[in-house]
Amino acid sequence: MKIKEMSETEVIEMIRRKVKVKISNVKMGIGDDCAVLEHSKTEYLLAKTCTLVDNVHFSLEYFTPEQVGMKAVESAVSDIAAMGGRPDYCLAAIGIPHDFDSSFIDGLYGGMLSSASGYGISLIGGDVSSSPNFFISISMLGTVARKQLVTRSGARKGDMILCSGGLGGSAAGLGLLRKKAKGSSIMRHLEPKARHDLAQKLAKAGITSMTDISDGLAPEIRKLCASSGTGAVIYADKIPISSSTKNDAKKLGMNPLDIALYGGEDFELVFTAAKNKLDSLRKFGVKVIGKIVDKKNGIKLLDKNRLQALESGFDHFRSSLK
Amino acid sequence: MKIKEMSETEVIEMIRRKVKVKISNVKMGIGDDCAVLEHSKTEYLLAKTCTLVDNVHFSLEYFTPEQVGMKAVESAVSDIAAMGGRPDYCLAAIGIPHDFDSSFIDGLYGGMLSSASGYGISLIGGDVSSSPNFFISISMLGTVARKQLVTRSGARKGDMILCSGGLGGSAAGLGLLRKKAKGSSIMRHLEPKARHDLAQKLAKAGITSMTDISDGLAPEIRKLCASSGTGAVIYADKIPISSSTKNDAKKLGMNPLDIALYGGEDFELVFTAAKNKLDSLRKFGVKVIGKIVDKKNGIKLLDKNRLQALESGFDHFRSSLK
């Protein structure tokens, strides 16, 4: 079977089945936002790799080298944060066409360092290769207090599902860039920020599960439910979509709800919590968007009083964003 | 300046100048085989990223997917081993053209796991991206007892320079593959093995510096001397070159000494030790190939009683191996 006929989930599942981790000090291997390793009596070590390939995950037609460097770091920070962790160190592997100018490397590392220093992350190594097509792969190491570790698998029937902020902005921004149109969503695509500080507060407040929204709300909810062994109902009218995202979606003839559900790359957080935590969580500006239900009830979207299946959306193996 | 006009050393130095690590628990950042981090009272954490790009570092015309997976892991293990460390965990980021067959992923991960399991390494995560050109980037985490850490910077005037085994085999093998010729060196190129067990013994025996030979003996000696602040004399007639490498070099019309000095990718070890350690080290089958001298005497090759400058050799930014 050709890889393009497989979904990304299928590819990862194929690898996960092959890789059977037996070593006792790997608490979690493939299958959550990060790998979780034994580290000390009070902490786990977290490890994550995020790769951005030119014309697949972004395009140098729109992005400055600085923005690529920033997005690569923010994307890896977002995964560490989604497990309640603090990012500490990163390694950067880059592949770069040999006819690029050296100022590209200067800008790229400038962007990486600007994002990294904001979180207190040290860039400790990596490598630089020649490559016909530009890519960057960031490996991030972090730590999390044992009692503060939040996984995708802790959601329980009756928990509420919450979201940290507006969705769909990055996808609307990408749409505008492709059509050479203007709008404030563009910066959501070019310069997304990980919700690191909020994630720390949520993990301390005692939530049951969390993941970052890198692939769109719908696929992230599906992964969270699969890991937790639950179903879910998402309330379409509660999904936060900013007015600027709605405006930009309108310009593009796109349905704002669709891009919020399937757009991805907003790096907001989706998480679950017991009902009795809601009052203490609301002060963080987070919104209830649904409820965890029994697995047998499936994963549904409640839209205009109609309950429908929540589609997986955009999950095929991406060949081009251009 | 275009990147192709720069040497790899210049590119890395440009990045190193930009990245000023201040955090106190980074013992070593960019500039040795691995980054070295504080970990526990008795151990350091080692971290390394190695990237292989199709048609730059290898070619899928010659390599099976299994061999690429194995070489990627061996290459990262070699760097951890060269600091006296044990590899523990790895993350694999791959970029794969969408018209590849899924059996490619199966073979690639099979190769990675086969090498990894031999060293007791757990593959704990990574990511899979679509990419127009295939690449694989392995991030390896390891540990080393504090007193067993060996760097590139510990060589001192009067130390002897030793090498773990035959050089030039990988380069001869590549030459044969390009000319569609046959010879036993081919397997040195396709299936190199890291000298992990030997490196452990050497680190325990008390050597002063070490690095693995991934770029050829000459550039590795230059890096070791630059880090240690010394010069060196290499004895051309003492460099170990196997008879099969010599035979294969002859078929190709290549000078065996040249490919040993500049060929790279043999993953043997070059290291330095005080003279009084030589007797205890010789039992490991290692060979004395030179001597550390004062920096002001430079880095020289003693060939047929003539002392000449040791050229850097192949250090431009590689665009293609094909």
Structure description:
The structure is a homodimer of 322-residue chains. By secondary structure, the first copy, chain A, is of the alpha+beta class. Chain A folds into 2 domains: 145 residues, 60s Ribosomal Protein L30, Chain: A (2-Layer Sandwich); 160 residues, PurM-like C-terminal domain (Phosphoribosyl-aminoimidazole Synthetase, Chain A, domain 2). In chain A, 33% of the residues lie in helices and 26% in strands. Chain A is built from 10 helices and 13 strands. In chain A, strands 8-10-7-11-9-12-13 form a 7-stranded mixed sheet, with helices on both faces. In chain A, strand 2 and strand 3 form a beta hairpin. In chain A, helix 2 packs parallel to helix 6. The longest helix of chain A is centred in the middle third of the chain and has 18 residues. Chain A is globular and about 55 Å long. The C terminus of chain A is likely disordered. At the A-B interface, helix 1, strand 3, strand 4, helix 3 and strand 5 of A face helix 1, strand 3, strand 4, helix 3 and strand 5 of B.
Task: Summarize this structure briefly.
Chain A has 322 residues and is an alpha+beta fold. Chain A has helices spanning 8-18, 65-81, 102-119, 169-178, 185-190, 196-205, 217-228, 243-252, 256-262, 278-282, and strands at residues 26-28, 35-38, 43-53, 86-96, 122-130, 135-145, 160-163, 209-212, 231-235, 269-273, 287-293, 299-303, 306-309.
Q: SSE layout and pairings?
A:
2 copies of one chain form a homodimer.
Chain A: H1 8-18, E1 26-28, E2 35-38, E3 43-53, H2 65-81, E4 86-96, H3 102-119, E5 122-130, E6 135-145, E7 160-163, H4 169-178, H5 185-190, H6 196-205, E8 209-212, H7 217-228, E9 231-235, H8 243-252, H9 256-262, E10 269-273, H10 278-282, E11 287-293, E12 299-303, E13 306-309
Parallel strand pairs in A: 4-5, 9-12
Antiparallel strand pairs in A: 1-2, 2-3, 3-6, 4-6, 7-10, 7-11, 8-10, 9-11, 12-13
Helix pairs in contact in A: 2-3, 2-6, 4-8
